[in-house]
Design goal:
The complex is a heterodimer of chains A (about 375) and B (about 260). By secondary structure, chain A is an all-alpha fold. Chain A has a single domain, classed as ABC transporter involved in vitamin B12 uptake, BtuC, CATH 1.10.3470. Chain A is about 80% helix and about 0% strand. In chain A, β1 and β2 form a beta hairpin. In chain A, α12 packs across α13. Chain B is an alpha/beta fold and about 260 residues long. Chain B has 2 domains: about 130 residues, 3-Layer(aba) Sandwich (Rossmann fold); about 80 residues, Rossmann fold. Chain B has 9 helices and 12 strands. A 6-stranded mixed β-sheet of chain B has the order 6-7-8-3-9-10, sandwiched between helices. A 4-stranded antiparallel β-sheet of chain B has the order 2-1-4-5, covered by helices on one side. A two-stranded antiparallel ribbon of chain B has the order 11-12. In chain B, α3 runs parallel beside α5 and α4 crosses α5. Chain B starts with a strand and ends with a strand. Classes of the chains: A mainly alpha (about 375), B alpha/beta (about 260). The interface between A and B is medium-sized, with 30 and 39 residues.
Chain lengths: ~375, ~260
């Protein structure tokens, strides 16, 4: 009988692995489709064949169909960097969300909700407002780094602050954590309000962009800067997957299983700040991606970080590509801030999540 | 051997543990009892190495605990928490497989799965294997956690040295049957040389299962020895502040305690 049970468990585990592989393939396909759609659609529609032809031309090979120079230009210098930035920031927000939720042992720890994105934005607002004053004293090459650096510092300080406030006596108090996030978001609101008051017209436009989030300023420079800020943390998180699983048992339990918990905690906090800061610097605050994506994946495949993190990276990227496409198409030829779309979808989702958790005996 | 030498813990000016020395010997079940606030949880945290004492040290094979490689230590010593805060919907099998994390790269995945199954079986919860952890009752969760720590220190050719299991009030939230089973299962580990340490609330369970009992009172070990030596009417009545009688268990011969 014991033997039969073993074979049965083997089948069950095998079936689960098949489901996980299938999910990986489906997510990858979804990402490709979303990428082609986002890169192809807009005021000027470009089909997949045209996109492939432009790419072939770009590397010096003959294309499949004819493309005009304008089409090639729109694709290569506007659409493609924008789609790449969408992939990077979507992945960054989703994997940071997933990893922070593991660290906080709670599915509500979204970088936007707990104020990490706002913290990054506060840093950036400071730079926007004082750019002319800072430009007078700082060398030019430093100015280019200043916005991302300020975003990272703001995110890092916030995530540390929220963790310190939320973790009382080694246990993380979720209510305190969320309230700390509210406080930090309120402070960011005050900083933004104050800056609107003192800002010039041009600064005002920049600030508006920060509050609602947008991929409109995507450039290849932004993509090149954001790429390592997202990829390094993403791989670090995936390498930490087992440790994050163990952390869900509790910090002491993870330590008893031989994991270096302090190191894992520091890494997660720094990497989440790096990924969030590195993308918020270019996109502004895009809320709820880090909440919605990991949660959907947990519902479908369970909380194991070894699957959750790679899938969240792809899912977040797809979600942001689609949201950006919607932002560009809904009010053509103008465009909506992407944060409007993610918040419109994410807000109700968050309420549903709260109600559901309440039904299961509270937070 | 795992031993505490002169552990002293002071928190907020209050001495919580005062010069506590204890030895966990191979093949032996050691239970610590004591009234609420005696320092039992602090003692097990210090023994497990999650709390650093203000004086004294915990040694494993005469080497301070902190000097051991964390993963190597985890292969030999497991700790069952009072209650687990796991609130994410892992499958039960995955929770138990987490116990195998310190063995990654040393055992095959297939072996880990069969050990996890054997551990689930030993904890009496083999039937829950495919269930989601968050759908289980408190008692079922505690037994799955027991399976996890059993899997962690499961004996194998690669894991031959003396193993240690620390239990922090493992019978909380359990009914009579499972109180008995969880301790009997821990007791069975002694058979192949492992050492078990348990903090217990209920002196009768300590008397029934343990080889040795230590009484912790206001941070000090006030008595230590076999249940028969330690669990006397005068000592227990003074300890708990009510009049107690100690009778002999009709079948086992161990002492059992009753309110007079």
């Amino acid at each position: 009988m014991a033997l039969a049970a073993t074979a049965h468990i083997g089948d069950w585990l095998e079936g689960r692995k098949r489901r996980q592989r299938l999910a990986l393939v489906v997510s990858a396909l979804l990402l490709v489709v979303a990428f082609l759609a986002a890169a192809g659609q807009g005021a000027m529609a470009l089909g997949p064949l045209k996109i492939v032809s432009i790419l072939l031309h770009a590397v010096g090979l003959p294309g499949i169909v004819d493309v005009t120079p304008v089409e090639a230009n729109v694709f290569l210098s506007i659409r493609l960097p924008r789609a790449c930035l969408a992939v990077l920031s979507g992945s960054a927000l989703a994997v940071s969300g997933a990893a922070l939720q593991g660290l906080f042992r709670n599915p509500l720890a979204d970088p936007g909700l707990i104020g990490v994105s706002s913290g990054a934005a506060i840093g950036v607002i400071g730079v926007i407002l004082f750019a002319s004053a800072l430009g007078a004293v700082l060398p030019h090459f430093l100015m280019a780094w200043l916005v991302p650096l300020a975003a990272f510092s703001g995110a890092a300080v916030t995530v540390l602050l929220v963790y310190r406030i939320g973790a009382i006596g080694g246990r993380i108090n979720v209510v305190t954590m969320l309230l700390a996030g509210i406080a930090i978001n309120a402070m960011a609101g005050a900083a933004i309000g104050l800056s609107v008051f003192v800002a010039s017209d041009e600064q005002l436009r920049d600030l508006n962009f920060w509050m609602l989030g947008s991929l409109a300023s995507a450039t290849w420079e932004a993509v090149l800067f954001a790429a390592p800020c997202v990829l390094l943390p993403a791989f670090a998180f995936i390498a930490l997957a087992r440790g994050l699983n163990a952390l869900l048992l509790g910090e002491a339990e993870a330590r008893h299983l031989g994991f270096d918990v302090e190191r894992a905690k520091r890494l997660v906090l720094v990497c989440a700040a790096l990924a969030t800061g590195g993308t918020v610097a270019f996109t502004g605050i895009i809320a709820f991606v880090g909440l919605v994506v990991p949660h959907m994946i947990r519902l479908a495949l369970g909380p194991d970080h070894r699957q959750l993190l790679p899938l969240a990276a792809m899912g977040g990227a797809s979600l942001l590509l689609v949201a950006d496409l919607a932002a560009r198409l809904i009010v053509l030829p103008a465009e909506l801030p992407i944060g409007v779309i993610t918040s419109a979808v994410g807000g109700p989702f968050f309420i549903w999540l709260l109600v559901r958790q309440q039904g299961r005996g509270g937070l | 051997m795992l031993e505490a030498r002169g552990l002293t813990v002071i928190r907020g000016g209050k001495t919580i543990l005062d010069d506590v020395s204890l030895q966990m010997r191979p093949g032996e079940f050691l239970a610590v009892i004591g009234p609420n606030g005696a320092g039992k949880t602090t003692l097990i945290s210090a023994l497990a190495g999650t709390l650093s004492p203000d004086a004294g040290e915990v040694y494993l094979d005469n080497v301070p605990l902190a000097a051991h490689d964390a993963a190597a230590l985890a292969r030999r010593r497991a700790v069952l928490p009072q209650q687990s805060e796991l609130s994410f919907g892992f499958d039960v099998m995955d929770v138990v497989l987490m116990g195998r994390s310190p063995h990654i790269g040393r055992t095959e995945e297939e072996e880990d799965v069969s050990i996890a199954q054997a551990a689930l079986d030993a904890a009496g919860v083999a039937h829950l294997c495919e269930r989601q952890y968050t759908t289980l009752s408190g008692g079922e969760r505690q037994r799955v956690q027991l399976a996890r720590v059993l899997a962690q220190i499961w004996p194998s050719r690669a894991n031959e040295r003396t193993r240690y299991l620390l239990l922090d009030e493992p019978t909380n939230n359990l009914d009579l049957t499972h109180q008995y089973h969880i301790l009997a299962r821990a007791r069975a580990l002694n058979g192949d040389g492992a050492s078990v340490f348990a903090i217990l609330h209920e002196p009768n369970l300590a008397a029934f299962h343990a080889d040795r009992v230590a009484i912790l009172d206001r941070g000090r070990i006030v008595a230590e020895g076999t249940p028969r030596e330690v669990l006397t009417e005068e000592r227990l009545s003074a300890l708990y502040g009510i009049d107690l009688r100690v009778l002999e268990h009709p079948a086992r011969g161990c002492p059992q305690i009753f309110v007079a």
